[in-house]
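Hey,
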Amino acid sequence: MSLRHAVLGLLADRTASGYDLMKLFDSSLANVWPATQSQVYGELGKLAGAGLLEVSAEGPRGRKEYAITKRGLDELRSWLIDTEPERTRRSETLLRVFFLGVLTPVESVTYLSVEAARAADEHAELERLDAQVDWGDDALSVYGRLALEYGLRLTAMQEEWAKWARDQVSELT
């Protein structure tokens, strides 16, 4: 996914200013596709320049509200339907696991324990986010909830796997 498509996707549901988009990124996409303020504002300019967005309203202090154009919606739909997602196969965590035999069993157990704790912390953070979000029946809520559930299940699996792997290594000592 690109920042371009994340911005188009957020604007497909409603108009928003750069500030509004940052709030949406922080409350919904931060765990999927984080972005900084400068990245979002830069992308808004590029998308408007390409005719994929338009300024729909201007307010005080130069505040601009953006709306997706027909071309922008077509671009988003094409990306969703016609473009194969990048499925990254690289995982530095698993690469390290592959070479844990270089370490002592105690060091390996420590590494896996840290991974289990990291996954548990990330899972707890997602649970806190879930409890804070006022889920509605709009598209962003419905599909955002699906993405959050993926994260919850993934982090639960990662914690479970790291504990299992730690126990396997512990038996070697």
